[in-house]
Amino acid sequence: MIHLHSSTPTQRAQWVSALVAQEGTYGVVSHLSQMAEVSRQTLYSWKATGQSALEAAFEPKEPQARTPLERAVLTLLVEGHASYRGIQACLAVLLGQQVSLGTITAIVQNAGERAQRWLEQQVSEQGRVLALDEQYSSKRGEAYLNVVDVHSSQVWATLPAVAVDGESWTLALWYLQEQGVVCTGTVSDGGRAIADALRTTKALSTHQRDVWHVLHLAGQVQARLERVVQEEEERGQLIERQEQQRASTGKKPVGRPAKTTGSEQEQRLRQLHRVLEGVKYLFAQLHQLLEIVVLSQQSKPRLLGSASRREEVETVLDLLEEVVQSAPAPVRKEVQRESRAGAPEPACSAVLCPGDGSASARSHCTVGRTGRGTHWLGLAAPGDSGRAAQAIA
User: Do 145 and 237 reside in the same domain of the chain?
Assistant: First the structure.
């Protein structure tokens, strides 16, 4: 059976306060033990409990949790893309709450202010490399402009739907400068509007093309070439049947007459197959050279540095230009799309090479011209010999 002490909570609080205030003073515990007729062990236990309560009372309070209503409003706005009236209707159906438009507006504004304060705390004094991209809206010619940190994936800016032109991107870049974001480099898909803005802000020299769009375009070009080859093969089979019918009956075959003979079509097919095989090989080499880690194909593989990779990419582009020149006229323009993927217009551009600390830029009007043609895609580097040239020879 447990015997409770006859003292009141007020008395215990006074005794504990005395023990905490006179901690380390000789004889205090013994004196209180005799006066209150309490064991020393009980006094020490009360002191520990009281001291813990005092420390807990002065602990900094956790930020107040968001109310269910606030969370519901922001979730419907951000994830559901609902309008304010749509949010009002959803809250009435899902939560049974009638919320005014003014309340919803205040919740959104407070959330925006908190986000702005948080962003101001995240600005780094060191330079950042920014990815620039556009998300087109339902209205023709307008898009949402997004600026994302390449290394941390932090969203520095997301602007509402505006006209996709150099002026809009220039204002976005100036806004980031006012916010204290130091931009040391940019990456984009090579759009004309972004290039105009970077030229205005004197940042075109540190601009790079992202690898994904280059490789995506290469896949599109290869798929179209494969369709062209398949169509020409079907046309060749049709021409062969018409010639066999003419030889067996001596009459003109039914249907639209072919524009080429069987031998001409066969020669055309051989040429297309050579172009397709060359494009497949060179695109595979380009894909490999743009990987994060690239090893040489020597007996003892070694890691290729940025300089070696630039030379290899330059070689692939030179060989791709030769394939373009040997391609039939109808498909030549298609192959040239990839060889010119590095810049949509006469401007300096570069392809982002993983593992390369800095971007090298070149102009297709000057440095980009070689003895075998003009290249808009690539990393500027001297030399045109390398693994790709040896393999395709």
Answer: no
In a domain, 155, yes or no: yes
Separation CA 292–CA 356 (nearest Å): 10
Domain count, the chain: 3
Same domain, 178 and 115: no
Q: What is the CATH number of the domain that holds 147?
A: 3.30.420.10
Task: Specify the range with the lowest mean pLDDT, choosing from 115-119, 163-167, 321-325.
Answer: 115-119
114 vs 76, 107, 111, 122, CA distance in Å? 18, 11, 5, 13
Closest to 254 (Cα-Cα) out of 241, 271, 273: 241
pTM over 0.70: no
| Token pair in block for residue 351 | 């392809």
Residue that is last in its domain, among 89, 122, 155: 122
pLDDT tens track for 304-316:
888 888 888 888 8
Residues 107, 144 share a domain: no
Domain housing 85: 65-122
pLDDT of residue 93: 92
With H, G, I as helix, E, B as strand and everything else as coil, classify residue 163: strand
Question: How far apart, in whole angstroms, are the C-alpha atoms of residue 75 and residue 235?
Answer: 56
Return the C-alpha torsion angle 145, 146, 147, 148, nearest 10.
-170
Q: What is the mean pLDDT of residues 37-42?
A: 83
CA 197, CA 15: separation in Å to the nearest integer? 73
Collapsing DSSP to helix, strand or coil, 295 comes out as strand
